[in-house]
Amino acid sequence: MRRAASRKPISAAAFAIATLLATAPVIAQSVDKPASTPVAELYRARTIVTGTGEANRIIGFAACLEDVLIKVSGQLRLAGDPRLGPYKADAAKLVRDFSYRDEKGGKPKNDEQGTRDRSFVLTTEFDETAVNGILDELGAKPWLSRRPVLGVFVEMQPLAPRRVVVTADGKEADLLRAALLAAGAKRGMQIVLPDAAELAAVGAGDRSLAGVAPARLVEVAAAHGAEAVLVARLVWDDRELRWIADWQIDWQGRSQRWQAAAVTFDEAFRQGIGAAAQIIAGQP
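The chain above was modelled as a monomer; its predicted structure follows.
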């Protein structure tokens, strides 16, 4: 069976969202926009399973189905929705195709990572009609129209006074950049990141993104084909052992803000991009 690639997901934490409305500039569409996410990819999800046995595969199918329902509809609110229980229990019946990739392919096996308990990336493709039918029963709709490209600006403060801004070319942020791109793919959103030189040019090299005029960030994002701007500041809370993230999206002349908390930055990124997708899809 054909192998497929993916990233390992990391545990989630509680999610909270509240919005405030204001005004913001509209992004000029002056460059060619990157191609939208193919529809087929919206109905495909990946997760990590232990071994290739049926029991763990069934668990993986359930996790993938929830991801696909969120990705296809753009409704982050479906995450953890108890109404998904019966559908997830029968997820195997909705699978069109699946494949495995050995996460440690090519690496020698050791005593703690043998064949039986070795981790694999499970890629699952679901039947489109079946998924659309579930969404209809849940009062949701497939979001199959072209999705706008997100220009994402993320500033992180792991421990004061250290500060990291995620860029498309900064080596210091390799893991953060990979996590952001993976979060975009998981939520069906294409994202673009600024270059370090571009940030320095607008004054974000030596000061917080909050101190940069929104119009300057819009210009940087638009140069990469972005049609919406998503800005985040993540601060590590050493007492609560979690990231506190403040998010803001500028879309169609409006700015919406919210705050969320997550144990890992991977989950924080998935929350933020998922919430942005929900706003763009026109679902409060």
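Residues 1-31 have pLDDT under 50 and may be disordered.
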